[in-house]
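Researcher: Go.
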Amino acid sequence: MRLPFFVYGTLRPGEPNHDLFLRGRTRFEEPGLLPGAVLYDGPGYPYAVEQGGGTVSGEIITARPEAYAELLAALDLLEDCVPGDPRSLYERVARDVTGADGGTVRAWVYVAAPAVAARLRAHGRLIEGGDWLAHR
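Model: Structure:
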């Protein structure tokens, strides 16, 4: 599936990984919201954890078709996301996100892997308001 990406941390415009990974590879970037999730502070980057009642702010990134496969592989590597590996920090999941126009878009989202999410719920520091940029 060639879904857009919902990014909420260091891949957002103005953050260090935006230019490193997304510059020249995107067709569209627009503000978006991920309902049903909250943000936790990590070591220099956030983790989205699926949890009812919260909303995470970010951007919906549509990749250029010719750059899609390369970008997907690069983001999986950046996010330490190896499908099926329980040691991964994140897992890539397809979720409905809300675009700037209020419409719903299906997008890939990197959320905290189950073991990481459990640790964060027990001992993590919640980012109030769900916006990494406002938190920083």
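Model: The longest strand covers residues 46-63.
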